[in-house]
Amino acid sequence: MLKKILKIVGVALLVLIAVQVVNTVRYTPNTPEVAQIDLPEVDAARVAARLGEAIRFQTISTSEDMGTRGPAFQGFVDWLVATYPLANGAMTREMINGLTPLYRWDGSDPALKPILLTAHYDVVPVAAEGVSEWQQPPFSGLVADGFIWGRGALDDKSAIVAIMEAIEMLVESGHKPKRTIYLSFGHDEEIGGANGAGMVASYLKEQGIQMAWSLDEGSMVLLDVIPGLGAAVASINTSEKGYLTLDITAHSEGGHSSLPPRDTAVSTLAQAITDLQSAPVPGGLTGASKDFFDGLGPHFSLVKRVLFANQWLYRPILEGALSGSAATDAMLRSTKAPTMLVGSAKDNVLPQTATATVNFRIHPRDSIASLIAHTNEMIDNPDIDVTIRGGFGREPSAVSDRDSQGFHDLETTFRQVFGDIIVVAGLTVAATDSRHYAQVSDDSYRINPFVFTGADIKRLHGRNERISVDGMAKAVQFYTALIQNAAQ
Ligand SMILES: [Zn+2]
Asked: CA 446 from chain center: how many Å?
């Protein structure tokens, strides 16, 4: 009898191992063959100098100046016209809300749905206390050590300059697109984009113009950002997270703190926050998260590949490991972060209310309503109020098609320009202007064609923002090839 059981167990184990081996062997990258193309010669020094000029316009967005804009903004818009005469000659331009240029390059075939290439030219302020730590002054636009330095070098003037350079070169070479191409360069992305991209979307909607797809910032060509991968990763992001802030308020009788009740609003609130934080929002390797990691999985070393190839068996282990780092955990689920606390105004006065503020970033599988429900369920205290701070939240974006012609054209272009590269569909964890453009686009994709290393992450909105001269030249090649691939 025992012998028989052992035999069954042995056979079962062998089958289990065999299944895993077969799954792992068959778990190979799905890399489409792309036709090699001749990439245009780019005058890298000229492009670098022009990005430097663009950076010198101090087009700073701050939350206090909603609606008002200094001469730097008009200066930048005029500079675009003066610097790219051929592109401006070939396209028509509409100024939306005075400061966001919307260009149109008419295609010869009106039956083809247009596409929209976008970027923004406003930048975040430079913190005064950190200025001395910049290797080059933040609005100098200096070219030094193989880099162009300054605010906007990565986010996001570089994309505007690369797109305009590409079109200038294409017009010069006599290129005429079949498909109409729109360009929109927003002036207020860093403070929400309502007056720029938002108005562009309204304008296009009024005109009845619907794009096949739009391309905006939201990811980059990631080199040494994801551990364990030898090649760079172009994460073409097909969705972006939503945004929600909740105020969680506990109540108690006020009075003097010399005769306190067993619990005050502060201690009740403390318990509520502890309960809320006792488990993450449910998530895992499904939907947009699965797309992303399935794209990367076949490129990992053998042990990781066994795990990814056999998610039916190892999913809990994988999810546990990915949850261990904030960066990968944010890809798996909605996140929650308690950020602010308010109680009594005086040390010896009992609070009548105590409020904690919690910021959520909403994964596409969740919604504002489901996260409020999650919060109430975790806190499980009917005396605690949960309200939306400011009465405003933003739902996550829809997940765009990763099998569309547009995605395919983007993927092809990345492979042609960057060679041996991993292309995946990803998720943007921050907010971009895409949420506006999505109203007039069948699909919205989010990535800039800039090589970006782990060390660059802190340069975004931080100190020493820069882009390499070679990287800018490559970006010009990318947009040139993209327009040829997508508009022919
Ligand atoms: Zn940006």
From this structure: 6
Domains of the chain are 44-218+430-487 (3.40.630.10), 239-391 (3.30.70.360)
Per-residue pLDDT, 474: 98
Check if the beta carbon of residue 76 is closer than 8 Å to that of residue 98.
Answer: no
pLDDT tens figures, 47-76: 999 999 999 999 999 876 655 677 999 999
Annotation says 189 is catalytic: yes
Phi and psi based region of residue 372 (left: phi greater than 0; alpha: psi -120 to 50; beta: remaining): alpha
For the question of whether the overall pTM of this predicted structure is more than 0.90, the answer is yes
**Centre of ligand 1 from the C-alpha of residue 157, in Å:** 9
Residue 157 identity (one-letter amino acid): K
Closest CA to 437 of 152, 228, 214: 214
Catalytic residue from among 122, 155, 291, 465: 122
Tell me whether strands 147-149 and 143-144 are parallel, antiparallel or unpaired: antiparallel
What gap in Å lies between CA 138 and CA 149, rounded to an integer? Answer: 7
Per-residue exposure over 373-410, b if at least 16 CB sit within 10 Å of its own CB, e if not: ebbbebbebeebebeebeeebbbbbebbebebebbebb
- Asked whether the bond before 156 is cis by omega within 30 degrees of 0, the reply is yes
The one catalytic residue in 168, 189, 217, 291 is 189
CB 486 within 8 A of CB 406: yes
Active-site residue, 133 included: no
**Closest by CA position to 159, among listed 454, 414, 449:** 449
- Number of Cβ within a 10 Å radius of residue 137: 13
